[in-house]
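Bit of a strange request maybe. I'm writing a small parser for structure token strings and I need a real example to test against, not something I typed by hand. Could someone generate the tokens for this chain?
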Amino acid sequence: MICFEKVKYKNFLSTGNVFTEILLNKSPTTLIIGENGSGKSTILDALCFGLFGKPFRNINKPQLLNTINNRQAVVEVEFRIGRKEYKIVRGIKPNVFEIYLNGELLNQDAASRDYQKYLEDHVLKLNYKSFTQIVILGSASFTPFMQLSTNARREIIEDLLDITVFSTMNEVLKNKTSDVKSKITDLETKITIAKNKAEVQQGYITKLENDRQKAVDLLKKEVANVEVKINLIGNEIEMHTNVIDNKVLMIEDFDECTSKKHKLTHLTAKLIDRVKKANDEIYFYENNDTCPTCSQNLSEQIKADNIAKQTSKIIDIEEAVEEANKQIKQIEDRISEIATIQSEISEFQKVIIELNNEVKINNKIIAKLNAEIDAASNNVVDIDNERAKLKNIAKEVINLSNDKSLLNEEKYYLDVASILLKDTGIKTKIIKQYLPVMNKIINKYLQAMDFFVSFELDESFSEKIKSRHRDEFSYPSFSEGEKQRIDLALMLAWRAIARMKNSTNTNLLILDEVFDSSLDASGADLLYLILDTLDANTNVFVISHRDSMFDKFRSVIRFEKKNNFSQIARQ
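Reply from user aminoacidic:
Good idea to test on real output. This should exercise your parser:
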């Protein structure tokens, strides 16, 4: 049983920077009163926020922070389960979430969501929906059990009966089944791939066996083609060599021409030198009257004869020079012709070099092809290796198929377990056992509130309500006051079931403005009587506007606003 002992909060909603503290196990019945906006219902939001991280009313988390101080909103909830003392501390600005057990802070290594899950699953064994159905009946932000969806109703009943473990197991089983299915699919894909590989490998081996000789023949054919190409290149080389030989014959006089040109050039130089000497003689006789050697006078006749002699000599030499130049010109023309032929010979020689290189390359190709022919002819080892690979692939297919068979067997058992853990399985059998008890307790509380109808929940948690005259009704067909009585009866019934199961049993019961809403005076009096019949371990808090109910409660807490902050004026 969860025994809530204390809730305290500050800077939370309309409260200030001083803790508002409420003892939850002090009195069997407590009335909480105050004007609208004085902070009466803040206790509901504080409890829900402290335990579950969200308020009871539809308020955004940032709005929970006091707008005046705007920092250090803190809620602390203390409760006891057996000998274990727990304290939950949750805050905003800064964000705080701490769980203390017997004064020691529990490990906070996990993420906040996991920490919250630990609190709900292992400590409280209550989630937000179940808490607000069993502990709180409010007029604001409260969805009565009868207005919840079928899944939400089932979730609350499973919490009450402590059979959520089957839902958890079912989720684990779903994940496991999904994982197994994924593995089977993965294995099927691998088996298909392996079989395809085997087919390809077998085809490859067959091809190796059938095409080995074809490959050799093809390589030999390539060798023959290259040899033909070499022969063609040889013929081309021979043709170019013949051309070169012919052209060499055409320039056999090159040395002779070169020598003759040299001689004629030398001769021409000598002749020109002789012309210069003759001109020097003429100049002497034209400008001198005395012989420089014997100092005798030179007569005009002697001078004229010598000048005529030298002039005739010059004419002969110039004719000889002209003839020599003609011959030199002829020889130079021949040398130029020879140079052209030599250039042609050089081009043919380059072509021959290129062709010889091509022959070398083709000879290398032939050598490579012959090596490939030898390798192809002796390619038995490769085929044996490929057969070994095929055997390995076959072993892989067998192993994968065996793994798949094991997984299919596992999936069969998981499917059987899934049928048992579904809502129509074990949980339905357990719920069937408790439904008569639940319906009996619900009807007991309805009768205690003078609401004489036959109320029955079926296995799908749909209601069937019959009047004394056996007319069938549904929940929406009743008045708001009658709905309120059904909601109260269900809440009290759930608490009774929780007490029987000792799983979600708690000392705390809070009724928020139940007496102020649709419940008439007669219904209110009956509810007082019912509350008085609750066991001694129950602490009931009633939030109300009615000051006239003081005499019905053992203690009263009055809230008021002072300087815009809510505070307890009386406790």
